[in-house]
Specification:
The protein contains seven helices and six strands. The chain is elongated. It starts with a strand and ends with a helix. The relative contact order is 0.19. The mean pLDDT is 90.
Length: 211
């Protein structure tokens, strides 16, 4: 399929070819769910921790005599049935991350790109940079491409690691940057506006082509 390349002022310049194997796939909601769920799980820290009776500070001495009181036997005050005692079956540090098959992740990213291309939220933009690295200069460049309504979530797909552009946009909470070979399913899927630089289209066509 073909898509028009627009300037920073929103004017159509020329056409660029989008690979059907990357931008023309049918929508597979299952793989999108798997990819996003995997990314969120890998971000979980799992640092919640509770103290068991062996971790609670206290003496190991019996609180009272074992026999003759008419009460139940107790080993120490660290028992979970006492106030200040240990916790039973509480959370402990764990690793929530897991590995998703590469083919599933690649298919999910291509499916999201296809979804964005089909519903009209993906635009191909002429290459640009922000040599000054200032946020106000970047906002001026994007003024015609990302309106205030769309400013909640805007994703720019770069052809490489442009440090100047990333430095200019790191103060904008509604803007995120992705490299064509290091896409994130969560950011890409929830982006209301996806701006792909013209030089990144070639990288997407080749990197995610069927092998």
């Amino acid at each position: 399929m073909e898509r028009k390349v627009v300037s920073l002022q929103g004017k159509e310049l020329r056409s660029v070819e989008l690979s059907d194997s990357v931008f023309g796939l049918p929508i597979n909601e299952d793989v999108i769910y798997y990819a996003i769920n995997n990314e969120l799980a890998n971000l979980r820290l799992g640092t919640a921790d509770t103290k068991t009776r062996s971790d609670v500070h206290g003496t190991n001495r019996r609180p009272y005599a074992q026999k003759g009181t008419g009460r139940a036997r107790q080993g120490d005050n660290k028992s979970p049935i006492f106030v200040g005692g240990g916790t039973v079956f509480g959370p402990h540090p764990r690793d929530y991350s897991y590995t998703l098959p590469k083919k599933v992740k690649r298919l999910a990213l291509k499916t999201i790109l296809s979804l964005k291309a089909q519903n009209g939220t993906l635009s191909v933009v002429e290459d640009f940079t922000v040599e000054s690295g200032k946020t106000k200069d970047l906002v001026q460049k994007l003024e015609a491409l990302a309106s205030d309504k769309e400013a909640t979530r805007t994703v720019i797909v770069l052809a490489g690691d442009d440090a100047d552009v990333k430095r200019a946009g790191r103060n904008l909470p509604w803007l995120s940057f992705l490299s064509f070979n290091r896409l994130r399913a969560h950011d890409l899927f929830y982006g209301r506006k996806v701006l792909v630089l013209e030089s990144a289209i070639k990288g997407l066509n080749e990197f995610y082509a069927d092998k």
